[in-house]
Every structure is written in structure tokens, then in C-alpha cells.
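Archive entry: two folds, one per protein. Generate the first.
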Amino acid sequence: MQVQVQPVGQSLTPSPSTKYGQHSRSTIQTAPVESLRTASLAPAATLTPLSDIAPVESVTPTVTNDETGDDSKGRGVIRLLEAGHFKGVADVRLRINFFEELSARAAHNAAPVAEEQSHELTNTIAARIDELLKPLVADEIAAGAVDAAMADFNDAVANAVGDAVSAQTLTGDGLTNTIQSAFDEMVSRMRELLTAPTAEAPPPTDLKTDDRTDPGALPIPGVDSVSVDGTDALVTDGSEPATDVPASDPSATLDEALASLSAAFAEALAKFVQAMDSATTLPDPSALRNGNGSAYDKSLAVYNDMRGITSAIDQTA
């Protein structure tokens, strides 16, 4: 049997054996052998000890109103209500559902009106004090005390309005009572400053004459004595006898001035309250449309009750 040697890198495929156990000449097939390449080894990574690894904190996502859409939807409804978009029963019911939001917006919009009206009130009182009380001031010390009392009143009014704006309580008796108390305190100080002590009247003159005095020698009002040929004669001047003018009572004058000041304050405070009511009162809903009269009346009664308004339906019930 003849064997053919295959070079290195080649495969030898033998032919099938014959019946005599010999192999025929085989066909040599060459198979390419890829060259081995040395793979580059990556540097070994430095492992961090487990003790040095900080634990992972669980983070809870925060969902804002803008993401949920509820707050933006509410603001959109309020804008539509203020613009008069809804009508009839829908308008009234939405005003009931968003009553707190509508009231808060009304109070916020009324803040500039409150500041303007408070300045007008204090300016009115200051002008009346200059007119009524400043003429009664005796000296510079008293004038400075009057100015200080008026400045304290202005500060009290400004602080009361500022607190009411922050608390959204521009209406009601709370703010009015605070301003009234500040005015009463100022008037009390004014009275103490401007009340002058009553001067003691001089003792009456004793008109008793000496027994040796001739009663005819006493002067007569409206009559002058002149000498004619060495003889005294009485000549009348034709004028009316002088009358005493009663002195004005300082206490009565001060009372009148303070009464006029109080009347001016009452008028200014009423104007302030009316302006606050107009600025903070929610508007009336739209008129009733066709149908749903009963539902509209019931919803309107609830809405008016929330606004503090007595409806005609409640009065006739």
C-alpha cells in the first residue's frame, strides 16, 4: 500500500477501502488554517469594597398640581366664570363649587382698593384736624403732640388694612372695629392735650364807697364832666353804655371741634366700608335660561346664602 504524506496544515481524506484491505489513491484537499492571534488582555479592574458603597435611597416622585392637571383645570373654570362663559344653572352651580377660590381672587383684587381707600380716609382726617384742632393749640409742644397722635392713628389704620389683606378679611366688622378703636384712642389723646386748665376768675370789686364820698361825685356811664366857668357840668356823649362780652369757654370749643371731627370720620369710614363691599362682593350669576326654573332657584338660594344675601325666594317662603 502506498501512502502519500500530507503536509502540515492539510487534511488527508482516504479513499474507501477495497475488498483486499487496500486503499486507493486518496484525493488531497487543502483546508486553510487561520493563524492564531494573541488577544489583548484588558487590565484587571479595581474592585471597590462593599463597605464603601453607599446604600441606594428610595426616591418618591413628587406630583404637582400642574402635572395632574387639577389645579390648571380649576383656574380655567374660574377664568371662564369671570368671563361669563357659563349660563343658567351651570353658572350658579359652578360658582357654588368654586366659591372659596372665587372669594380669594376677589379679596386679592380688592387689596389695591383697600390701600387707596385707607389713604383717603387718613388724609381726610388729617385735613379736618388741621382745620378744627390746630387753631386750638397753645404752643409748639402741644402741636408736636397732636401730630404724633395723628401719625399713630395713620399707622394703626395702615397695619389693620395690611393684616386684613393678608388674612383676606377686608369685609366684616373686624377691620371696621379696629379702625374705630384707633380713632377713639386718638380723640382721647387730643382731648387731654388740648384741654387747657380753667383760669380762676378775679375776685369781684367791692363798690362800697366811703361815707365821706359824695354819691353825686361818682362817674356816670356815658357822661363826661367838663368844667365851665369853674363849675363842673355833665355832658353826655350820646353813646350806648359799654356791655361786657362773655369770654368763650375753651372746653366747649374743643367739644364742638371734636364732634365735627367725629362726624367727618364716620362719613369717611362709611365710604371705606362701602368701597370694600363693592370690591369683594362676588357678582351675580347669569339669568335663568329656558327651563330648569326650580333647579335654578334652589341653586341661587344656596349661592346667595354663601354670599350673605337674602334672596326673594327665602323671604316669600
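Generate the second and append.
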Amino acid sequence: MPHVVTPGGTIIYHRFEDLCKVGILIVTLLSLLPMYTWIKRNGRYISYEIFAFVPLCVAVNMILVGSNHLSTIFIALEIQSFFFYIGVASSDRSSQMRDAAINYFIQGALSSTLVLFGLAILYGETSFLTLKNPRCYCGQ
């Protein structure tokens, strides 16, 4: 049961991740509405693919918040970084932005290899990748 409603109408959340997911949705909506009105007011052109990527990025953020396994966290971060790569590459049609997107992609690939190497070392030492160790008996 994720939450309990008291007789006074107050909602008490038992799981912090549900509250974080609601917060992600609220922040996304609050950031999209001014962006849309600013684009309409200034007459700027924006590709509508961005509005398709935003719900997917929000879904990946929710997976990231709710994950309990380090490999799931890594995959969610990688999927989210692909959305950022596409956003940088499609923001402007100049060659400088394409060069920046390629550099950003290369730096992201290098950092991903370092994270995977760290996860491999962690798995080699502890033989698990979960955030909550099922073999840990705290207090016993």
C-alpha cells in the first residue's frame, strides 16, 4: 500500500520513491508550460520531436528513481543520456552544434566505460549489484 489517507484528509506516503515520481511529473509540467508559451510568443521554431522525447525521458527518470539494482540504474542513465545527445544535436543546425554533440557523445561513452568498469569491480568484490543486500542481516 503506497499511501494512507487519514480521517482529516492528509495523505501519508510510506514510500519516498512514489513522492519523488510525483515530484518529477510536477516539475516536468511546470517547466514545459512556460517553454511552450515562450516559443509561441517569440515565434521561434522548435522541432516537435522534443515534445515526444520529454514523456520518454520522464518515464526513464521514474524507472531511475524506482530502481534497486545498479545495472538498472546504469541502463536508465544511458537511455536518458541518449535523449540529451539527440536534444543537443537537434537544437541548432550549425556545424558547431554538431561538433559539440559529437564531443558530448564521446565524453559520455568514455564515462560509461568508467562506470561499467567500476560496476565490474564492485561485482567482482561483492558478487551482487543490488542496493539492498539480501545477505545482510543487520542487527543480528
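Annotation attached to the second fold: The chain has a mean pLDDT of 78. Residues 68-140 form one domain.
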